[in-house]
Amino acid sequence: MKKIMLLDSIRSMQNVGAIFRNADGSGFEKIILAGHTPIPPRGDISKTALWAENTIDWEYYENIMEVLK
């Protein structure tokens, strides 16, 4: 079973970076970003993520309902 994480409207780039880093260390295969969540590439995300955003697949959806359907 795939481990997928969904982030909706996490506004802090540092928090998003930390989540990428922790998801990478916890074996998640994909992160879905939605709403107002900042997306890579962004310096503050990469700095905190230690570039984990390059090792985990991720997708962005403007509306979380697109994902939940």
Brief descriptors of the model:
69 residues; alpha/beta; 3-stranded parallel β-sheet; globular
Layout of helices and strands:
Elements: E1 4-8, H1 13-25, E2 30-34, H2 43-49, E3 57-61, H3 64-68
Parallel strand pairs: 1-2, 2-3
Helix pairs in contact: 1-2
Written account of the structure:
The protein is an alpha/beta fold and 69 residues long. The chain contains three helices and three strands.
Which shape, going by the Cα principal axes?
A: globular
Number of helices: 3
- Write down how many β-strands occur, each being a DSSP E stretch of 2 or more residues: 3
Largest sheet: 3 strands, parallel
Distance between the termini: 19 Å
The overall average pLDDT, rounded, is: 95
Class based on secondary structure composition and strand pairing = alpha/beta
User: What is the helix/strand order?
Assistant: EHEHEH
What is the spatial order of strands in the main beta sheet? 1-2-3
Q: How much of the residues is beta strand, in percent?
A: 15-25%
* Helix share, percent: 25-40%
Flag low-confidence runs.
none
What's the alpha carbon Rg, rounded to whole Å? Answer: 11 Å
How do you describe this structure in short?
Helix content is 36%, strand content 22%. The chain has 69 residues and is an alpha/beta fold.
